[in-house]
Structures are given as structure tokens and as C-alpha cells.
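Hi Y.,

Following your request, here is the sequence exactly as I used it, all 323 residues.
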Amino acid sequence: MQVGVYYYVWYDPSTPVSWEYPKIHDKPLLGFYNSSDPNVIKQHFAWMSELHIDFAILSWWGINHFTDNASKQVFATAKGNITNVKLCIIIEPYNETANGYNYTELYNHMYSEFVEPYPTVYYSYGHYDAYGTFFYKPLLLFFNGVYLTPNGDFPQDDRFTILVVGHGDYANWIYEDVRKTYGYYDWPNPPIPRERQVSILPRFDDYYVRSPNCTIDSKLEWLYDSQWARALDYNKKGKINVITIATWNEYPERTAIEPHYDSTAANRDPYFLYNKTLSYIAELKGISTASAGLWYNNPRSYAIICGVVIFIAIIGKWMYDKI
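Below is the corresponding structure, written out as C-alpha cells. Let me know if you'd prefer a different format.
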């Protein structure tokens, strides 16, 4: 069983729109970070690895866009550090105009910038081709868009396993969304898993992002548990191979499970959703793991405890020298 998570790399403190209030109501434990910061990326990998997440799906918004450069930094950081988390790209509908996409350019960019330089990092996914042959290829995802993936009819490239993600009835993988505006199913009645995949999210709250808007479980009291219960049941019945968590750090829609200070949660522990995720993945994979939120994973606690240890060492040396 593979567990993936959607990872958003669009945050840039130098651009006010990235972290502006009230669009962003919750604060990451790491502060309002830059998605290109290697130290932030390393900590994200450390957390994802402890959760036993298998792959992260980077949200990508065009060649030379901030997310393009940030994604390159994420891949480079992953290559230079020990992590079990693999990476792949989801191409977002960044230019939804007629004839707005050069697919040959997109495929070549993805292969030359992310696959070829990082063969041990890029996530490969097993899939049947049109001839019924099963093989692993680098996974490239497209989020469904009117022009990006018109009804699933768009150019393909056989260097990749290509899947469409989203809400449309032609999407291969569902991107969980509790709103009823898309018509492909009426939440909370879930669809039958497509391509043996199910998506889950802890909450949805886009009140300050768009209109019309929707808020489901703003206090984080029940939705995440119910969606994990559904996923675990599918797994027991042998209906799925992949679970995708939406999301690691999508703060505008408030679906983040990254450790953060939450403005409305009933439980204000910044590791609340992180701990839940750790427990559920451990149950899913049948592994034993210590509870999350360990002191060395919390940067603030790490600094405090290291300071205390250093202080004790200094006092001990002073007392020893006095003897």
C-alpha cells in the first residue's frame, strides 16, 4: 500500500499574497516559510519519513514559475539528504485558455529537469499500458482542467505513467473535495475507488478564498477520522493500492496536516493531525511506531532541550573545576 501527499511549494514570504491574512488563518510550526528554503524542505522530509509517507506530489504551475524553481530545490534537497520519500509532479491548469499548453515542451521539461537528474528520487508508478503490459514509469499527474485535460483527451508521452487527478468524471485519481459543486458525486456518499486510489482530507474551509464557499469540520472533530475509516475499510476489502492525503500544506483551503498552530481546532496541539496521520498509516501498514510530536521533531522544543543540555554541561564542568 502506497501513501502519497499533495505538497504545495508556492510559499514565498517576499510576495505578500503567499501568506497574507485573512486568506491564511493557520500558522505552520516552522513559521511563514519560503518553499525553496532547504532547511524547511529537510524538516518536511523528516516529518514525512516518520509518518511513513511514500511519495509527495509537488504542485507545479508553469516553466519558470516560482513553483518550478522551488520544485527543483525540493528535488535537489531530496537527492542530497537521506529520505525515503519519493517525489513526483502534478501539472496544474495554470493557463486555462484555448491552445494554452505546449505539451511537448511540458513533457520535455519534466523529463530533463526532474526525471533525468533525479532517477533515485523521482517516484515511479506501476501501470498497464494500452496493450495490457504492466510496468513502472515516472508518474506525471495532471489536474483536470477545461483546456489542460479536456475530457481526458490530450497528448500523451510514453516516457511517463500519466494520470489525471481531480473532480471530473474522467479523472483517474480523485482529489478529495467535500464541496458539491462538481457533480461527479454527492458528498458525503463517496465514489467507488478509481484506479484503486482513494483520497482523504482533514477539513475543508475556503471561506476567505472564494465565493461561493464551503466550510466542513472547521474544528477538526470528525471528518479526518471518517475518511481514514473509509480508506482503511477499502484496504481491508482489497479495493485500493494508493491513498493520497489532501494535503500536506495547502493553507488557503485549510487542508494541511503539516504541524501548525490552528485557529479553530478544538485540539490546539500543533501535532494533532500529524499524530492522527502517524497512527492511521501505522495501522494501514501494520507497523509499530512511537507517537509523533517527539521533542527532536519540534524545532522549538529541540532548541530548548539542547540549550538545557548545554547549560547543564557548563554547570557540571564549572563544578568539576571547583573540586
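The chain has two domains: 2-291, 293-323.

Thanks again,
Q.
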